[in-house]
Amino acid sequence: MQDRPDDKYSRILNASIQVISEKGLEKSSVSEIVKKAGIAQGTFYLYFSSKSDLVPAIANSLLTKILDRMKRKVHGGESFWSTLNVVINETFIVTEEHKDIIVLVYSGLAVNHSMEKWEEVYRPYYEWLEIEISKAVQKEEINSDINVKWTSRTIINLIENAAERYYIGGEQDESLTVYKEELFKFIRKSLIAG
């Protein structure tokens, strides 16, 4: 989940997010993307072999953004429960901000790319949460008999699914605050020895 430092790459990626958000992947053209990015069309093909290759790059960009936001707010000394609140809140914020592009990313990766690519994009996010969960196990904040790797993936998937159901699926029969509180309580109960 590393951003490429190249300015042209970033300009292409940002322009593609804007154009694809407005028109969708199928109706967007490379010509529109490069025009918005202010680069030559040939430059696009130095970074991407096709328009569909933008999908994993966009997914990578969004996950890098959310993980960076979380890392800025989690400094390592707080409880796992504070970290979990940050994960929930930041996931909901990014989902609301980028709901159209998230739908595109899911459909694009599902159709055009393998699950291995999906896992590769998510790996740094999963690994970061695995470290946080391991610390919580060591501090005896959560059950010690869990599979940390599996638990990390499950928590991330559950939170993302809840945020997407709220913002994309329109499941807003409860306030956002209640929705996030219920999600937090569910995860907490599943991780505490009882």
Protein described:
This is TetR family transcriptional regulator. InterPro entries: DNA-bd_HTH_TetR-type_CS (IPR023772), Homeodomain-like_sf (IPR009057), HTH-type_Tx_Regulator (IPR050624), HTH_TetR (IPR001647), Tet_transcr_reg_TetR-rel_C_sf (IPR036271), YvdT_C (IPR041603). With 194 residues, the chain is mainly α. It has one domain (54-191): Tetracycline Repressor, domain 2, CATH 1.10.357. It has helices at 7-23, 30-37, 41-47, 54-73, 80-97, 99-112, 115-138, 148-167, 176-191.
Q: What is the mean pLDDT? A: 87
Compute the number of structural domains: 1
Low-confidence stretches: 1-5
Quickly count the helices.
9
Radius of gyration: 18 Å
**Succession of helices and strands:** HHHHHHHHH
The tally of beta strands, per DSSP, is: 0
Helical content stands at over 70%
Secondary-structure-derived class: mainly alpha
CATH superfamily: Tetracycline Repressor, domain 2
CATH fold call: Tetracycline Repressor, domain 2
CATH architecture: Orthogonal Bundle
The share of residues in extended strands comes to under 5%
CATH class: Mainly Alpha
Keywords: DNA-binding
Protein name: TetR family transcriptional regulator
Pfam family, one: TetR_C_26
InterPro entries: DNA-bd_HTH_TetR-type_CS, Homeodomain-like_sf, HTH-type_Tx_Regulator, HTH_TetR, Tet_transcr_reg_TetR-rel_C_sf, YvdT_C
